[in-house]
Amino acid sequence: MANKISHSCLVSKIAITLSIVSLLLCCGVFLRTDLMLNELYSRDIKLSDKMTSKHDMNDGHRFDKDHHSERTFEKQETKQTKDVFTRKVRDVTTVVNSTINDDLLSKKIHQVLGKAVASLQGGKYWIPVPGPPGSQGKPGPRGPRGRMGKSGRRGKRGPRGFPGKIGLPGSRGMAGPKGPKGDRGTSLARPTALISPTHLIVNESQSAILHCSSSGYPRPDVVWSKINGTLPRKRAVVDSWQTDIKHVTPNDSGIYQCKASNLLGSTQTTAKLQVNFHPRLTLDKRPIYRMGSNDIRLPMCYVIGHPTPKVMWSRVFGILPKGRSAMKDGQLTILKANQNDSGTYVCKAENLLGSVVGSIMVNVIDLPVFVVKPTSFYTAQRGTTAVLNCTAKGNPQPVISWRKDNGVLPVGRYEVKDGSLIIRNVKQIDSGVFVCTATSAGVSHSHENI
Ligand SMILES: *[C@@H]1O[C@H](CO)[C@@H](O)[C@H](O)[C@H]1NC(C)=O
Ligand SMILES: *[C@@H]1O[C@H](CO)[C@@H](O)[C@H](O)[C@H]1NC(C)=O
Ligand SMILES: *[C@@H]1O[C@H](CO)[C@@H](O)[C@H](O)[C@H]1NC(C)=O
Ligand SMILES: *[C@@H]1O[C@H](CO)[C@@H](O)[C@H](O)[C@H]1NC(C)=O
Ligand SMILES: *[C@@H]1O[C@H](CO)[C@@H](O)[C@H](O)[C@H]1NC(C)=O
Ligand SMILES: *[C@@H]1O[C@H](CO)[C@@H](O)[C@H](O)[C@H]1NC(C)=O
């Protein structure tokens, strides 16, 4: 502990001593520097005087020689200075010589200062402090202009400018060549109308188109119409130059008129429309029963269609009786018919669009034949039962019926049994004419008796 304190005391003593020595050194140096600067100044004036005298001689060689001699002089001076300096260093504090060479002097100053500073730096109490920054120097002169740079990319196209003013009209050109003579102007004309085709045939459900070309001045109004009928509104497309009827029906057949009119009058023209259509047939289909050996007239087979259909009769099985059948206006007649003529008969209507058939059943029946004919004259006692026999046969089996001419059968006293008329309790009033009728499918045969 005591050792440490004594050590720090020694250090501070050395430091104080060093500080005093360096202070004295500095004072001496500044003094000497000032003296040397004065001498330098005086020497500079002397040198300049020498230089002026050398320049007056106007001889470069001499100047060089002189320069050389001056150098030599300088060298000698330097040697002397060195010697002096050597002495000086020995006793800096007491000796100051103003004749020392300036270079040497500065060197010396540096050396002495450097040593002093080094010795200070070697100590622990040297604190370097940077000086304040110098003031900014004046800006340098402007440099030469640089080379031109590369050209940049092409910019976007600018907006469209305002249109310029309209220029003055040009001078009038030469007159052109004379044109061809123009058409004669239209004069007033009565209307005309021409329809085509004048006769149109179409199949049903097709379209019918009639054209009407009209002329006249002023341009005439065209009106279409149907004679004794009306244009089908829903299916007809009508304009001034044509009528187009879609999906025609047989009713559309007829005369169509195109009428053109203007202020000078009117004219009309017509065309015929014919609609071909499938045949249609009407036939009473109820079966017929006719007695044999008579002529049988079959019902009428009504047929329409366009073109007018051909009508034919035939039998489903077999053929029409040769030589005994006749047809007139779609009606068939079987002459002197017999049982073999019974059967189904067919009426067929046909045109270019197709055919249609209708059929009818024909029954030829035999005339009933009386097997037992009642006696022509019969007399019965009053109060007795009278029996009047009557039987018949036929195909089909005939039905026997009785009646009394100019009167009625006695109510409650008669009956018909197996074709025989039985009258009980015969009275005077029962006298008269009794008729037996055999009926077979509507064909009857009567026989009278009293
Ligand atoms: C300084 O040096 C010169 C020669 O260079 C000498 O003549 C002169 O006596 C010296 N002065 C002193 C004070 O030593
Ligand atoms: C009408 O129909 C028939 C049969 O199909 C045919 O031959 C004819 O050419 C048609 N007519 C028209 C005008 O189409
Ligand atoms: C139109 O009908 C009238 C009378 O009903 C008749 O005289 C005339 O012939 C008919 N015209 C046509 C084209 O059918
Ligand atoms: C044709 O006209 C008649 C009457 O004139 C009518 O009864 C019939 O329905 C019409 N047919 C069609 C297909 O329009
Ligand atoms: C009916 O046909 C049959 C057989 O074909 C024939 O024998 C008979 O003579 C015919 N009757 C008449 C009335 O022609
Ligand atoms: C009617 O027929 C019956 C038998 O069928 C017969 O006995 C009777 O005499 C007949 N009458 C006459 C009037 O012929």
From TrEMBL:
InterPro entries: Collagen, Ig-like_dom, Ig-like_dom_sf, Ig-like_fold, Ig_I-set, Ig_sub, Ig_sub2, Neural/epithelial_adhesion. The chain crosses the membrane at residues 12-31. The keyword Ribosomal protein does not apply. Residues 191-276, 279-363, 368-450 form the Ig-like domain. Signal peptide: none annotated. Pfam families: Collagen, I-set, Ig_3. Keywords: Disulfide bond, Immunoglobulin domain, Membrane, Repeat, Signal, Transmembrane, Transmembrane helix. Residues 52-79, 126-186 are annotated as: Disordered. Residues 144-159 have a biased composition (Basic residues). SUPFAM superfamilies: Immunoglobulin (SSF48726). PROSITE patterns: IG_LIKE. This is Ig-like domain-containing protein. It comes from Exaiptasia diaphana (Tropical sea anemone). The lineage of its organism: Eukaryota, Metazoa, Cnidaria, Anthozoa, Hexacorallia.
